Fold these 4 entries.
Entry 1:
Amino acid sequence: MKLLLILVAVFVCVATVKCCKEQLESGLAVPFYYGHSNLSCTKGKGKNKGKRSLNTVSTTRLVHRFVYYCGYYFEWIDEGVDPFGTSPLGRNCNPEIYSEPAGYSRVKLECAKNCAKKFSRNFQYHMLNNNCHHFANTMASFLDRSDGECCNN
């Protein structure tokens, strides 16, 4: 039964990514969402494993924050951990994706991945001053603008 659930989850993820890419190629905007998971749980797991208008989220709430877009979780926990993936860093920590979209974007998936990599390379993680909440707000702002600016640098 567990294997079946994993296979279904992988299929849904691949279908979501494929569908998203098709919509973006057609010029349609795709929704993106904020989400969160338990901070202490995610912090432990992450180190060992590898709305119609835009809202920002609190940068001090004691949860781990991420942005979900095109079947990918964009999140930042510290240097050395990829800032995106098809499963969240804290996948065993009951991650929650909010039901209302944070916004809509026309940014290609590869561009969003490049932007996330640039952020993680150019900024030093700090638990209070530059954390997962700041990263989520930056990614959401970039996705909302849909200008691809991050990919042009």
Entry 2:
Amino acid sequence: MTHEGFDRSDATARARASKRAANLSINSELLQQARALDINLSATLEQALQQAVRTRQAELWRRQNLHAIAAYNDAVEAQGVFSDGVRAF
């Protein structure tokens, strides 16, 4: 399913995407502990970034659609939904 150019079915293609070196700064004690525990820094950062990107994309989507969602909710409140007389629950 595509949402704002994001296709979840393309997850395997993203996993195979080329890697690119990046320089970052990190707390030296934390880095030392991670290395001592054999934590894969690249994989850990990539997972954290994926989650951060998903979170930010969701926040952006909510902000961009806030007015449409409010308008829909107002319409449902005023007019109800098509199944109001049909539901048994």
Entry 3:
Amino acid sequence: MQSFQSCRIALVLFLLVATSCSPTIASTPTPSVERAADIPAVAIIEPMATATLTKLASPSPGAKQTSVATPTPIRQVIIDSVPITATISTTNSIYTAFDFLRDYLTNRTYPVIIDGTLRAWTNNSVNVMQYAQPLGGVSYWDFWSELENWDSPFFMYNDDDGNWYPYRYDTVRDAKGKDLQAYLLADRKGPGVMDKLWFTQDAVWMLETEESRKNVGPIEDMTFFNEWGNLDKLGTLRIEVDDKIAYDGPIVDWFSGKALALTPELTQILTWRHREYGSIGSIVPIPYQKHLRVLLYNGSKKPKWFMASGVRFSDTTRLRPFATSDLPIAEMARLAPNVSRPESYINTLDGQRAFDLHADANAPATIRFNGAGTVSALQFSIPKRFDPKQLWLRVKYGDDVGSHVPLIVFFGDQKQLVLHRSAPLGIVESADNFIFYSNLPLPFQNSMTIEIENKSTTAIPFTARIALSNETRNSQLRIQYREMEKLSVYGPDYHIDVPGNGKLVGLVLVSEDQGMDSIPRIVDPKNPNAEDPVKRAWTMGYLEGNLHLFDGTGRERIYGGHEDWADAGFYFNRGYSAPVGGSNRPFGGILRYKDGKDGYATIFRYFNDLSAFRFQNGLQMNFGHGTWNNNFPVKFGVTVYYYKES
């Protein structure tokens, strides 16, 4: 396997050239809760005393009627399942943009696990000259400065064959027949799909100094600037698919949903804007059979921070080239509540069952599935008078442990019970209960056991709801959990090694204790009485560190900052999230954040099937932790969610 260091060296060289008994249950002190998101009380349909056919509230009009099973106060449940082979959610051999959206809108994140010819690609503003340094160099120089040319050798991308190229200008002809210079952001051969287009531009907080105000330039409309930054200064966005213009119009219209006639709800789950998230982006898939080009022209500013990412398929893959008229907006709108109200997704599924269980101090509550199938959705409802931090979740496939983590870790943060809502996982509350929900499919091939362990001395009751399907796939959901550990000043990247073949579908990074007082002060070589302005550190600056993903076959993806892989910008903390986390996206955001010397941050990102990083022969994950040469001795911990080939 190619090592992380050898990847950097190669780049440097290139640049240089249960039972039925009922225990006595006592209450414990009400646990502290961090309400990271502005989540209203959620009405959850509780298991009923008798089995009755009930029309459950469905976020998907026309969903089938389902019944809730009679809850049984027991410690162990055994369920038999007869398997069928799952199929990918398309009836066509020619894939469309909607085919790549369907899994996101229906929470089916596992249909395609490995394609030996599929490769991830990334075009972004990572400063490869700095990144090639042994410890990552200056990590925050991942943007084009005002005076820097677009074709600067500091910013490069690698093609499907691993060759590095600087970005370049091109010429486009506008609607009036005038030839104009354009910034070429992406030029990719097909067949493939672009899964994301993301920008971070000048922001309100940049108006704090005279120099930055000069860089931002005149602001005609402060309300617009608060909403979008100066995105409109980039001018016209052109997307060319198979040598035809698929979109050619104001860049703001693409991200506002106007260009695609998205409903307000679809706009919220497929795009985002500066005020909400510190960045501007879209995850509308853009399939192309032969060729994709993304350009900007006719603006007064160049892009500073950007990312376009996607995948390249085998040459035999057939795709319908993207057109703005292709999207079935009505069908997408029907499915959108599965994402915007994910805690209700289970209500739309057949095969629902519910059980009243209790976890004793010396015996876990157990749900065992015989045979093969898939748990399509899972919920635990725990009375608020008990502390969920005392519970651990174990999932076993046969005798093989796929995950064994604290319950709050599986559903969110490592340290706090944080209320939040995302499409695959979340924690919400009703008047009396905390509801932990998961829409990540749990396929199993030869039995599966879900156990809830209790680390306290007091028995804890809870209700489990499941939706079971008898379809299955050759994959299993796995969790790699690592508690926080203290890193070293100028130490190596924080490293995670995931074995086997699979697909990365989720990542939570927990950080605290950044150790500002332990960071050496570097003297400015031009002024011995001042700190070096380039190698300096500032509070929370470790979030500037890059994330590098690569596998044993050469697939890789580099993110130019820890907020970047969550698709956000500016650390989320400049008024974009009020309260903190309130503007989280359905797929990512921040669970906890505090600025200052005693600051901390928990960042999360969940990847749908298209954006998930596929890996073979192991996945290496390297997290930078500083503004210069990993200079922060911060504490890092992670939770990694992935489907492993079984």
Entry 4:
Amino acid sequence: MKFVTKFTVLLAVLMLAAGCVTQRGMDSGESVPSQPNSEEATPTESTEQEDVVQDGDSVNDGTTKGESTKEPVSKPVAPPKQKVGVWVSAKKFPTHTHIGTTKFNNFTKEYSYDWQLNNTLYSTFKKAIEQNSRFTAVDISSMVDDAGALDFVMGEGNNGAFNDKQNTLRKSLLDKGIATVIIVEEAPTVAITECGTYGCSEHQSKGFGLFTRSFLGTDHYIASASFNVNVERLDKPVDVLTLPTFTEFQDDALKNERVEDFTPPDNFDEITEQELAPIKNTIVNYFDRLATAVGKYLSGQ
């Protein structure tokens, strides 16, 4: 009995062991789904990647198109400068005009000292005009031979009218961008006026330079800026120097200034260039003041 029982138990154990082995075999034999290669994209991932690429291309295309259609930024262009024509006519050498006690003592002579006054006066006006960056000076001496051709305005101040005879030249200058002209021409001026019992007498300076007056041993030395000066606008009929601001510059008394500290020359008949230097400086100073006033007028000051 004991033997049978042990045998039965052993058989049961063997059967259980065989069942476990079989089950394990079956478990091992079941196919395990193969995992996709990490380097191989699944259809879904592939589609997503294509969409991303397409979206990226669209973005790039949009940027490129946006850049290609973007308008370049243009730099501001400065307006053209307004031109002021300057015409200067003065002879090469200074003049000494002398009025003595009698007419037999009178004389007029030139000294061969090259003051280069044409260049000096042009440079003076150019400097004053171009203080304002909106303006530039232009030498028109080569365009016109005679100052009379530059007589564009008739009348005074703001009540003038254009001279029809000069319309062709005026319009030609306007076409070149010249809207104002300055005319400086050497001409006789009244250097001194003397009044007495029998009335007044005027004595003229015959040209720029030195004017002297001697009477009963008394000598007067006068720096003579003996010029006619006009400033005329071509865009509207205005003779600028007839405006109240410029009245003094048209006065011959201002153009002929007595030089109180002038040193009498060693030889009255042959005054040296060095002795005449104060006379030249006084003449240039007159034009400095005039040019400054014209520059302020053009700038609207």
